[in-house]
Amino acid sequence: MKNDLRPQKHSIFMPTIVFDTNAYRNLAVLLAKHTEDDRDKIISTLKNKEVAAGFSKELNFWVVCELLSHLADLADTEYADCAEALRIAFYHCSHKGMIKYSPAIEGEIAEFYESAEISGKYKHLFGVVIELAKEFLENGRSGHFEKLIPEIPIMVSTFKKQIESGYEAGKETLIVDRELKVLAKKDFKDEQAYKSILISILYNTMEKMPTKVMTEEQLDVFMDKYYYGLALASFVTGKTPGSSKFQNNMIDIAICLRIGKSDDRLLITDDTGMLKPFKDHNAVPEKAMPLGQYFDTLAFDPS
User: Fold this and answer.
1) How far is Cα 61 from Cα 254, in angstroms, rounded to an integer?
2) Which position has the higher pLDDT, 91 or 186?
3) Is residue 7 assigned to a domain?
4) Which of 75, 117, 222, 232 has the fewest CB atoms within 10 Å around its CB?
């Protein structure tokens, strides 16, 4: 069956499952009527079914950031849901006391360009965010947490602006904005637009024109790795930069940039906008599917 992603006889397909932010939030809402002990038992059942199906999990860096950004202010109307979603995310992705993370792509890009400074910057950022999440889960709003948490919404906002400004980088080698918008509106699957956005991201990550030139073959490798994020970015670029609709898509793009064309990752999301590039590339359910469909695949009932 097309929707049955469990490994079949003689199959070696064992996907790595990546939940987006809303998937964890929706799961938290589904389980809200249960006690914490019962919620943990239900998640344990889900984990057991995933193990039996041969699935592994990966916790996306930007999912952690987005959930943490709602914990900076106790008055945030989404505070309770995001706090529980964060707890569920870490428990869901833990296996034998370990968690596999997908860090931001910028560190990977910096390593390609052999920039220890920028690579170190993103490794430090990654470490701070993960440790801050663990501090909250283990000790609540400790003094250390209270000191650092205000930085998270600022960091997320800065990242959104960075992606937006990234479309302006390296204009000499990019399709100009007007033409890129035409491409995005004309054909959501135009890989020339994807490559232009990729080059823009590379330049913006390095904060200047890199001295090391990436070959076309190397560009193709990176485009394959970041494929569905570039596809979503191509569509979003057709919107007006600076608008709320554009800004609201930035973290979605960051999450999708970790879903490559040839890797084993499978994105779980209820966000119709995030599902669009996968549907347009006929990659549902192989590369993305809604939360309910994923539960059906595992014969899992969270109620």
Assistant:
1) 9
2) 91
3) no
4) 75
Report CA torsion sign: 291, 62, 199, 177: positive
- Which residue has tokens 């193990």? 51
CB-based contact 125:176 (threshold 8 Å): no
Q: How much is the average pLDDT of 143-171?
A: 73
Sheet strands side by side (includes 288-289): 56-57, 16-19, 265-268, 288-289
Angle at 258 between CA 215 and CA 112, to 5 degrees: 35
Distance, CA of 221 to CA of 114 (rounded, Å)? 17
Looking at the domain assignment, is residue 5 inside a domain?
no
Range of the domain at 54: 16-297
Q: Under DSSP, is residue 99 helix (H, G, I), strand (E, B) or coil?
A: strand
**Token duo for residue 100:** 């596999």
At 81-119, the pLDDT tens digits run: 999 999 999 999 999 889 999 988 988 999 999 999 989
DSSP bridge pairs for 266: 17
Q: Which two tokens stand for residue 239?
A: 């919107």
Tokens 């960075």 correspond to what residue? 162
Per the structure, the count of domains in the chain is 1
Q: Which tens digits make up the pLDDT trace of 211-239? A: 778 889 999 999 999 999 988 887 776 55
Instruction: With H, G, I as helix, E, B as strand and everything else as coil, classify residue 10.
Output: coil
DSSP 238-294: TS-TTSHHHHHTHHHHHHHTT--SSSSEEEE---HHHHHHHHHTT-TTTTEE-HHHH
Q: Are strands 94-95 and 98-99 parallel, antiparallel or unpaired?
A: antiparallel
Report the amino acid identity of residue 232.
L
What distance in Å separates the CA atoms of residue 46 and residue 44, rounded to the nearest whole number? 5
Determine, yes or no, domain membership for 146.
yes
Residue holding tokens 């950022």? 125
Q: Is residue 303 part of a domain?
A: no
